[in-house]
Amino acid sequence: MTAVITADHLTIRFGSFTAVKDVSFSIERGEVFGFLGPNGSGKTTIIKALCGLLPPTEGGGTILGMDIRKDAAEIKRNIGYMSQKFGLYEDLTVAENIAFYAGVYGIKGAQAEQRKAEVLELTGIESYLNRRAGQLSGGWKQRLALACAIIHSPQVVFLDEPTAGIDPVARRALWDLLFRLSGQGVTFFVTTHYMDEAERCGRVGYIYLSELVAMGTVAELQQMPEASPQGTSRLQIRLPNPSSILGSLRGTAGVREATIFGSSLHALVDTDKIPALEAKFPAAQIETILPSLEDIFVTLTYKIMEKSR
Amino acid sequence: MREYFHGLMPVCRKEMLHIQRDPGTLFFALLFPMLQLFLFGFAVDTNIRQIPTVVLDESRTQESRRLLQSFASSDVFDLKLAVNSPDAMYEAIQSGRASVGIRIPTDYARTLQQGTSATVLLLVDGSDSSLAGQAVNTATGVTLRQSLLRVLPDGKMPIDVRPSVLYNPSTRSANFFVPGLIAILLQMMTILLVALSVVRERERGTLEQLQMTPVAPLGLMVGKMIPYGGLAFLELCAILAVMRVVFQVPIHGSLVLLLVMSLPFLLTVLGLGLLISSKARSQAEAFQLAMGTVLPSVFLSGYIFQIGNMPVFFRGVSQIIPATYYIRILRGIILRGAGIRELWLNAAVLTGMGCLALLLAARQFVRKSAS
Ligand SMILES: Nc1ncnc2c1ncn2[C@@H]1O[C@H](COP(=O)(O)OP(=O)(O)OP(=O)(O)O)[C@@H](O)[C@H]1O
Ligand SMILES: [Mg+2]
Fold this sequence. Notes:
The structure holds 2 protein chains of 2 kinds.
Chain A: E1 3-14, E2 17-28, E3 32-36, H1 43-50, E4 58-63, E5 66-67, H2 72-78, E6 79-82, H3 94-104, H4 109-123, H5 138-149, E7 156-160, H6 168-183, E8 187-191, H7 195-200, E9 203-208, E10 211-216, H8 218-222, E11 232-238, H9 242-251, E12 255-261, E13 264-270, H10 274-280, E14 285-288, H11 293-308
Parallel strand pairs in A: 3-8, 3-9, 6-7, 7-8
Antiparallel strand pairs in A: 1-2, 1-4, 4-5, 9-10, 11-13, 11-14, 12-13
Helix pairs in contact in A: 3-5, 4-5
Chain B: H1 8-21, H2 23-43, E1 51-57, H3 62-73, E2 77-82, H4 86-94, E3 100-104, H5 108-114, E4 121-124, H6 129-151, H7 173-204, H8 206-211, H9 217-245, H10 255-279, H11 283-292, H12 294-299, H13 312-318, H14 322-336, H15 340-369
Parallel strand pairs in B: 1-2, 1-3
Antiparallel strand pairs in B: 3-4
The structure holds adenosine-5'-triphosphate and magnesium ion (MG).
The site of adenosine-5'-triphosphate has 12 residues of chain A, from strand 2 and helix 1.
């Protein structure tokens, strides 16, 4: 296995504000890595640093073995990047945008034609070739942005919230596309706020207040002691009217967290208090479950908030 | 070397598409300078003629009438008002109906005949300094001539000045001002176009995407300069045509030389536009900064005020204003028919300034992208 993206004690400060604090990780070839964290936690900043746009204050990293501090120009030639905000020209057509990016990456002649045909086939955007980019719907805009980002067949692609604000069908189409490409050995670094998307990823990282607080496969994260502390259980509680007991459940001794999940409740409870809980809510069906990613991240977030207090 | 300009051609092509897609901006950019050329070209006439003048003739003699006649024939004074009292004369000047008052006292003819010195009072509204200066000079000249004619027995002047104005024989101000105006209009249009095109990309987030590609700062900048420089060049040709046909300003020197020597100026103002775009965060800010370059170029470039008459400090400032050099080139070629030998230094200075602005902008751009 070869690491294609590494961060090594990466720290980035803007003046006295630390946007990224001592972050280290390593991502293998062909991985689809999901990167999560609340707004302002430093996701975009890390991506910019890894692409060589922002020199790190401390630490460093590599992309495909190239140093992010020294080889910025070379790195830019070999990666794809799709910014959080739609970064293409709305007054240009789909074809003109793609042609522009092909030109910018120095792809010429027959090779350019071939690559254009490939990305059009891949993204299915062929029927919109002469439409202005500004007139595309959100989902098609994102597919166009992806087409431009991979026109030069990059080995590593950074996607900053590629599915923000687009509908579920378009989201699924985009993810299917990512997995098709990752099957061909392309490595993806994807930020998102959607848990279901994160759960599709091979591995996920969670950044909170500029620090990487969790990283691993979903199964690994579920086993994290911080996410499932010793002596506690993750419970699903089924009741006809879950919202009516949320308050009293939270007030019950031994209940650390409780939240509504559709028609049931999820709770983190001290294992020895489960019999008392069953006695208090006789009508409830209680079963032990594995924590979801959301459960894990909420638990981690609370823990850090408590610690910093 | 190619490395430094990576992305130039795609950026250039894309920029031309932007221009085509936005005909409104294009139309405005080309038409606006033209409108201003007409507006200022016709409005600016610094030769002072026909100053409204009020007359109080208390002498009412043949001599006093002869003096007034010579005032009137100078073309500088328009003796449009006659009053009967000093108060009425002051009132006419104060109210703005007249800018100059001439008072000939009761004893004017008598003193003249006695051979002693007669007094004529000239009142001048000093609120317009160039008008006042012209009025005083002309009045002095007129009375001096009258005095000499009285003293000299045969009415023949010992020295007769025959002025002959070279290069601008009719001393028409259009000939003097329109060439300078070209520099100002071209500068305004070019800086605005190029600065707005960069700032628009920053506002829309397309610049962020672009910075993640291998496009080099110089490739991006020169790629933007070429189409907008081309537009500015077309505008220059149109302005020169209007100057020649509408304002009847002949071009004494070589038109080709004029066009070639305009390129360094375009380079400089394009560079300035890029420099501004690297500072400005919004289109409004870019607009303000671009307009900020106009006033110094109008007042300190020799366009309106002679540089030689400026205080030392401003004379220094005028040396770093690109329009100063371009106006020398324009006036030199258009009015005096000057050639390369007289003007090459100006073009060289402009070329240097342009390259400097471009490099500074590229450096700013790299630094900015890092934050
Ligand atoms: N150039 C900069 N100068 C100063 N502060 C900055 C700069 N860029 C980002 N920041 C700050 O760094 C923090 C992290 O920003 P970043 O954009 O990385 O967050 P994010 O995780 O991508 O958030 P979001 O989910 O909203 O996209 C924010 O508080 C932001 O205000
Ligand atoms: Mg972000």
